[in-house]
Specification:
Elements: E1 4-14, E2 17-26, E3 32-43, H1 45-62, E4 67-72, H2 75-81, H3 90-103, E5 108-113, H4 120-133
Helix pairs in contact: 1-3
Amino acid sequence: MGIFKVYIDGACLGNPGKAGIGVVFYNEKNQQICEMSHYLGDATNNIAEYQSLIAALKKALEIGLDNLFIYTDSELLARQINGFYKVRNEELKQLYSKAKKLIANFESVRIFHISREKNKYADKLAQQAVQQSTV
């Protein structure tokens, strides 16, 4: 199998506040193969970002993907997972550990920081999850 692209985002109304995640998967031909939008309840923006990564990794394992390029507009998440920033927050440490354990199940996972502009669809899905909670 080729490399699958995954765009992830977490969003919240207030920080902390009502939070949601958005995840979009594309195959090696750049065709969308899956999307997810999920309400988390109250969380911080960083927790929502980590939850989007964890949800993406779980889904990728579920559908049998081995090689992932994951794109996030959270510089903190990308730099922590890639080992450039230390994880200091206790709650984030737990999510970081969970994400790293999931990553170990793949042949290859690379995480890239991208601009918000390039992550619009995952952001839209995360925002929809938050909005559905207020209906």
